[in-house]
């Protein structure tokens, strides 16, 4: 951890850690875990906003909190690129991390598994494994998705794979 | 014509021949009908004579028993092709095949897939092809992501469901064995979860990201380490291959995330490695089901050095998987009965030998000390003179964690928290 960039590091230290080891099949314990997830997300979003570094929206897509949808964006050369964001909470959560999906980028980059799941294997999975169950959704976004966007979006844009929405011809198919 | 890169059938001439062959297949000339009994009779039309010869040679007691078995295969990669292929040719009675993908053209090169099946789910394609190869096998295909809550329930249900015929076998589930051929940690943990909960023995298989090594592992809940007991083997394998540096190096040196290396796809694939691992997996599945030979608890394969390490892992008494802990408790409770059985077996084997003296004279007065005190061998106690330097860690202490939980078990309304996040999202 010592060698992550300082802004990620300081953000990480301010996201509350979670404590309850419970997955979506654990009933009441899962509800407690969900509360912790919300707390961490609220803290992280608030912090991003106050640092003028707001970069995602996420909310539960079902009452059980097992599916989450939203969006995220990345600014490259002063232009903002938006992507839909979604993931399921796996049954083995929090032993395994959520597999974050950017469905619009499916098939556009090698650093992605089938169905738009971003590749977290190298930079994030070892961290998650070491910190389970203390890491939650907010940590997955901060340490998993954010670095992925920072590494991939500039390449996708520069190679022409991803176009800014202003440049897309109105008749062009959307990339979904 | 479009073809997957690396496809062996690219040249036009071969393609012509393939078309010819395919047309004869479609005409239905080669499809055989179902076989009622597996016979050892050696005639051209009997697909099983060579398999049944295993009985005559005394390797397998009753090969025909194979028709009573059910096996569930969870797949998401090429090992599947080889496995289901071999298993089907082995003449099994019931196979469940689980997968999440539809086939892509790229799959033609390494999956059990024909070009005209592109777009079908991989499992449906497999069922189609396999039932052509061996109509005696009952195939069931499922296409669903088992890591989701819904997919997991369907998965558990398919494992629990019994064939009316096999009801009386005293099994916990409707299958005899689960074979895992998935390509990611999450899916393995899900299979592990299901098998721990159902007390179902399973064999896990894997090929490393660089496609030159692999492993199979027999997991018996409670008796052996479950997949969550030990830290992911992937990490150990990476370290063995000197890749740990690479793995953590990327993260550790990445002062600026933009400098992250970006080197093509996340994993390589080599059909021969998959073939070897698939062969090892099915061989051991057959040994397990038909009870011949020994099934290694863990068998590794390093193709660069042709090195096959084996090892055994005890379950972790501090495993985070609660179902695993329950199985461990059950296993310990059955220990006295097991010990008695083992003792009886050893004594039964030892007794006939004592009847005849091995040597009539003993010029040098050599005597063999009796070290067959079985109870000492079977108990976990240390031999005399040895002490443990560190206290036994078998008693799991989760004090710190539990303390936190009680502090945080507040009664703030979940909806209130949701509203707070929504408000933040809206602004």
TrEMBL record, chain A:
Q: Name one GO molecular function term.
A: UFM1 conjugating enzyme activity
Keywords, A to Z, come to: Ubl conjugation pathway
Pfam families assigned to the protein according to its UniProt record, in alphabetical order: UFC1 (PF08694)
Q: Which GO terms describe its cellular component?
A: cytoplasm
Task: Point out the coiled-coil segments of this chain.
Answer: none
Q: Which domain of life does the UniProt lineage start with?
A: Eukaryota
Q: Which SUPFAM superfamilies match?
A: UBC-like
What's one GO BP annotation on this UniProt entry?
A: protein K69-linked ufmylation
According to its UniProt record, which residues of this chain constitute the active site? 119 (glycyl thioester intermediate)
| Matches recorded under PANTHER family | UBIQUITIN-FOLD MODIFIER-CONJUGATING ENZYME 1
Which family does the UniProt entry place this protein in? Belongs to the ubiquitin-conjugating enzyme family. UFC1 subfamily.
Protein name (record): Ubiquitin-fold modifier-conjugating enzyme 1
Species: Platanthera zijinensis
UniProtKB/TrEMBL annotation, chain B:
Give UniProt keywords alphabetically.
ATP-binding, Metal-binding, Nucleotide-binding, Ubl conjugation pathway, Zinc
GO MF annotation terms: ATP binding; metal ion binding; UFM1 activating enzyme activity
The THIF-type NAD/FAD binding fold domain sits at: 48-319
Q: Output the GO biological process annotations, alphabetical, semicolon-separated.
A: protein ufmylation
- Entry-linked InterPro entries: ThiF/MoeB/HesA, ThiF_NAD_FAD-bd, Ubiquitin-activating_enz
Question: GO cellular component terms?
Answer: cytosol
Family listed? Belongs to the ubiquitin-activating E1 family. UBA5 subfamily.
What is the name of the protein in this document? Ubiquitin-like modifier-activating enzyme 5
């Amino acid at each position: 951890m010592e060698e992550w960039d300082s802004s990620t590091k300081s953000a990480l230290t301010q996201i509350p850690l979670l404590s309850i080891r419970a997955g979506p099949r654990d009933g009441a314990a899962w509800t407690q875990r969900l509360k912790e997830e919300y707390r961490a997300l609220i803290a992280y979003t608030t912090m991003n906003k106050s640092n003028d570094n707001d970069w995602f929206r996420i909310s539960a897509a079902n009452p059980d909190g097992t599916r989450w949808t939203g969006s995220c964006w990345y600014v490259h050369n002063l232009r903002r690129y938006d992507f839909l964001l979604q993931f399921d909470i796996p049954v083995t959560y929090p032993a395994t991390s959520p597999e974050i999906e950017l469905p619009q980028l499916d098939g556009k980059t090698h650093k992605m598994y089938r169905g738009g799941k971003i590749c977290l294997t190298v930079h994030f999975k070892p961290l998650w494994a070491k910190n389970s169950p203390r890491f939650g959704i907010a940590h997955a976004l901060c340490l998993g998705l954010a670095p992925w966007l920072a590494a991939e979006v500039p390449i996708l844009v520069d190679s022409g794979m991803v176009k800014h929405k202003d440049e897309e011809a109105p008749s062009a198919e959307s990339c979904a | 014509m479009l073809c997957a890169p690396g496809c062996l059938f690219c040249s036009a001439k071969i393609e012509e021949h393939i078309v010819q062959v395919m047309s004869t297949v479609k005409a239905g000339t080669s499809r055989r009908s179902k076989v009622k009994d597996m016979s050892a009779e050696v005639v051209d039309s009997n697909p099983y004579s060579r398999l049944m010869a295993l009985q005559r040679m005394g390797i397998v007691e009753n090969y025909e028993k194979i028709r009573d078995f059910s096996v569930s295969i969870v797949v998401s990669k090429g090992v599947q092709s080889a496995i289901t292929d071999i298993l089907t040719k082995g003449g099994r009675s019931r196979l469940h095949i689980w997968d999440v993908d539809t086939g892509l053209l790229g799959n033609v090169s390494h999956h059990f897939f024909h070009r005209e099946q592109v777009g079908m789910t991989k499992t449906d394609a497999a069922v189609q092809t396999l039932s052509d190869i061996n109509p005696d096998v009952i195939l069931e295909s499922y296409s669903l992501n088992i890591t989701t809550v819904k997919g997991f329930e369907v998965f558990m249900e398919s494992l629990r469901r019994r064939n009316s015929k096999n009801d009386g076998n005293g099994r916990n589930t409707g299958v005899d064995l689960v074979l895992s051929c998935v390509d990611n940690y999450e899916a393995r943990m899900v299979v592990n979860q299901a098998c721990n909960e159902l007390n179902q023995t399973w064999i896990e298989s894997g090929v490393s990201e660089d496609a030159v090594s692999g492993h199979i592992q027999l997991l018996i809940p409670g008796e052996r380490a479950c997949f969550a007991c030990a830290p992911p083997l992937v990490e150990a394998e990476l370290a063995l291959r000197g890749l740990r540096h690479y793995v953590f190096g990327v993260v550790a040196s990445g002062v600026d995330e933009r400098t992250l290396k970006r080197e093509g796809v996340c994993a390589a694939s080599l059909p021969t490695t998959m073939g070897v691992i698939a062969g090892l997996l099915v061989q051991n599945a057959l040994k397990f089901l038909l009870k011949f030979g020994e099934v290694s608890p863990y068998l590794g394969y390093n193709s660069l050095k042709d090195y096959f390490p084996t090892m055994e892992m005890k379950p972790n008494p501090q495993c985070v998987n609660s179902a695993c802990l329950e199985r461990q408790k059950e296993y310990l409770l059955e220990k006295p009965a097991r010990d008695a059985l083992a003792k009886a077996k050893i004594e039964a084997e030892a007794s006939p030998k004592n009847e005849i003296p091995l040597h009539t004279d003993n010029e040098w007065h050599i005597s063999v000390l009796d070290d067959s005190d079985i109870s000492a061998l079977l108990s976990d106690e240390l031999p005399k003179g040895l002490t443990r330097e560190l206290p036994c860690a078998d008693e799991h202490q989760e004090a710190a964690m539990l303390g936190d939980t009680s502090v945080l078990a507040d009664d703030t309304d979940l909806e209130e928290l949701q509203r707070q996040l929504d408000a933040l999202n809206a602004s």
